[in-house]
Amino acid sequence: MKTLGLLLALMTLPAVASVIPSKTETPFFRIYSSVKIKAAQNVARVSVSRLSGRGNNAESWDFRTGSSTFEIPLPFYRDVRATADAVLKATPGDDNNSFGTAFHIGQGYVLTNQHVLSTSRTNTTECKNFVTKTGDGKDSFRCEQVVYCSREADFCLIKLKAWKKNKRQPHTLPTLALHSSHEPDREALYATIGNPMGEGLHYSRGRGIRRHREGKFMFYAPVHSGNSGGPLLDEAGVAVGLVFAQGQYGITEDGYNLAVPVDFIVSELSRVLPSNHPGLLTVLDAVLN
Fold first, then answer.
1. What is the pTM assigned to this prediction?
2. What is the pLDDT of residues 30-69, one digit of tens each?
3. Hey, is 178 helix, strand or coil?
4. What is the spatial distance between Cα 274 and Cα 281, in angstroms, rounded to a whole number?
5. Which three-class secondary structure state does DSSP give residue 275?
6. One-character DSSP codes across 113-135
7. pLDDT per residue over 132-156, tens digit each?
8. Cα separation, 230 vs 241, whole angstroms
9. Is 173 helix (H, G, I), strand (E, B) or coil?
10. Would residue 182 be called left, alpha or beta, if left means φ above 0 and alpha means ψ between -120 and 50 degrees?
């Protein structure tokens, strides 16, 4: 990945956001906390997170709305919240001081990055202490099985199980649909939901996406350390990619971020797993026809 000039989006590496101001439509905002519903006005007041980094440039971008909060239409917030209910905060199995993201696609199976499973990049087969937690903090889930994990492509399919004290089972979580034949649109809006800086699930949105020469998606929605393993969503809230790296340019018009395309993930899993494997069948069931 050195040829891409990227940083893995984990706490163990420098905490720098990748933001392209002119292509940012919605700054990072908290989904589950510091939200005030104003039903009479049909809006939700959300909190802008100061996650963009250090320095005057970062400060001016963070608060270009003129406030540490801003209002969004209540139906839009409810759609974001419903989508985020399928996204999980993740703690790597070999470093409980780091953080990342995962998302549920059905039957207790989640997609995430290999570097979220293992910050040392050495583990591709063992659960160890990999743990996920819902955005509202009410439920935690352990790793039952690493079904498949690619260090080179930086993605994993993992089966979860509930803690003994949980009343909720992972297969009851909401799910995200997958789009395995998405054509990049440089004008469309794309969003990410992730766990930047381990501060809980946040939403951000930017305009445009394109293919990198190596096949990855280059996108412009803001990301920060901890967004790794989260979904890259199209305007319909369908996952078209798995966020895995951020540009090293910080807050600049030269920046970009990268995601593993869902079409690659589906193709790779179809190649390496038996056709009747329940994990593969779950992935294929999640793909929109």
1. 0.91
2. 999 999 999 999 999 999 876 644 444 444 444 454 567 8
3. strand
4. 10
5. coil
6. -HHHH-TTS--SS--TT-EEEET
7. 999 999 999 999 999 999 999 999 9
8. 9
9. coil
10. beta
